[in-house]
Amino acid sequence: MYTFGITRKKKDKKVKKKKVIIDCDPGIDDSLALMLALSMEELEVLGITVVCGNSPVEMGVGNAKKVLQFMDRLDVPVFAGAAAPLRREFVNALDTHGRDGLGESFLPDVKGYDQEMEAEEFLARTIKEESCSVIALGPLTNLARLLRKDPESFGQMEELVSMGGSFKSHGNCSPVAEYNYWADPDSAAVVYEAMGKSGKKMVMTGLDVTRKIVLTPDLLEYMKRLDSRTGGFVERITRFYFDFHWMQEHLIGCVINDPLAVAYFADRSLCSGFESHVQIETEGISKGQTLVDSMNFYGKTPNALVLTQTDPLRFFQMFYGKILKRTAESLDLLPCLVRR
Ligand code: BDR
Ligand code: CA
After folding, report:
1. Is the CB–ligand 1 distance for residue 290 below 6 Å?
2. For the chain, how many structural domains are there in total?
3. CA angle 171-239-225, nearest 5°?
4. Ligand 1 centroid to 241 CA: how many Å?
5. How far apart are CA 181 and CA 266, in angstroms?
6. 215 lines ligand 1 (CB under 6 A)
């Protein structure tokens, strides 16, 4: 009888999906992050909100729909958000992501599937109605606007995982600043401050960890051998990114920042770090810098979990496993990885 009970329980056990909204600025690596999130049975993507960042917001909405079409997931709604940062002039990153924001792949536009509701309204309503988290892969403007519009809803977010900032790694927009926080430092500053006030911790998935996630030519070739459709799509959107990394830092391959935030959200064992108070610099030559008070000089309560360690092999096992629908054991990724 007892044994039967256990068997029944096991049989009935369903994976409890973590509900999440993905706020992003697609963007090449944002698109890879969306592919990962949409492939994970552990996650339920309730919607995608788009912010200006890598690309202007309307272009970002179009790119999100292109990814959804490729994934055959146009059932996931996409909402346009902020077209400009809170206080500053908008500076896109099309030099990094190509004129179409998607590596100059120039994939055909997806007609229809337009949502009238604005991103901040969708965020406010959904967070209140569902117990959900947000993974933010672009500048934090939509989150700052949500905070201003509906602080109660902002406070009800389960978790906020952001790709942005850096602790000891150098910046990618200035010597000290990472793009997402550099592009809209004012939003980043208010969002981090509000997280502290609400007693929650922002998960800062910054350059210290994301720089270790390099899609190498060998990895890409291996992906194409395993699955020519998905590998071909990834190649089409990352070719430009490979060229950019070569020109910018003589790196053969490309750093794919955003998927690590999704991977960590689903599996906490992929990264580790420490809790600290983090403040964002909003003015002058260090604007966008994340001031991580790791030694607690200011004696402030931690408002962030700062990730500093990750395991690229395990990340790629997850990434390939999910988007190619393979088991980790069936993948032989180690020879394709460049240790950094
Ligand atoms: C971040 O900036 C963007 O270019 C990427 O999409 C990523 O979110 C890295 O600094
Ligand atoms: Ca991004």
Report:
1. no
2. 1
3. 120
4. 12
5. 23
6. no
Domain range holding 218?
A: 18-337
Atom of ligand 1 nearest to the CA of 25: 6
Q: What separation in angstroms does the CA of 282 have from each of 22, 184, 189, 205?
A: 25, 8, 7, 19
96 close to ligand 1 (CB < 6 Angstrom): yes
Please list the pLDDT of the chain residue by residue as tens digits (340 residues).
333 334 444 555 677 899 999 999 999 999 999 999 999 999 999 999 999 999 999 999 999 999 999 999 999 999 999 999 999 999 999 999 999 999 999 999 999 999 999 999 999 999 999 989 999 999 999 999 999 999 999 999 999 999 999 999 999 999 999 999 999 999 999 999 999 999 999 999 999 999 999 999 999 999 999 999 999 999 999 999 999 999 999 999 999 999 999 999 999 999 999 999 999 999 999 999 999 999 999 999 999 999 999 999 999 999 999 999 999 889 999 888 855 4
Ligand 2: centre distance to CA 128 (Å)? 25
What per-residue string of b and e applies to 9-25 under the rule 16 or more CB within 10 Å gives b?
eeeeeeeeebbbbbbbb
Full-model pTM: 0.94
Residue 192 lies in a domain: yes
CA of 268 to the centre of ligand 1 (A): 21
User: Is residue 2 situated within a structural domain?
Assistant: no
Residue 11 placed within a domain: no
- Find the 120 Cα to ligand 2 centroid distance in Å: 18
- Could you tell me if residue 240 is inside a domain? yes
Q: Is 184 in the pocket of ligand 1 (CB under 6 A)?
A: no
Side-chain-side CA neighbours of 265 within 13 Å: the count stands at 34
Report which ligand 1 atom has the smallest distance to the Cα of 29.
6
Query: Is residue 162 within 6 Å of ligand 1 at its C-beta?
Result: no
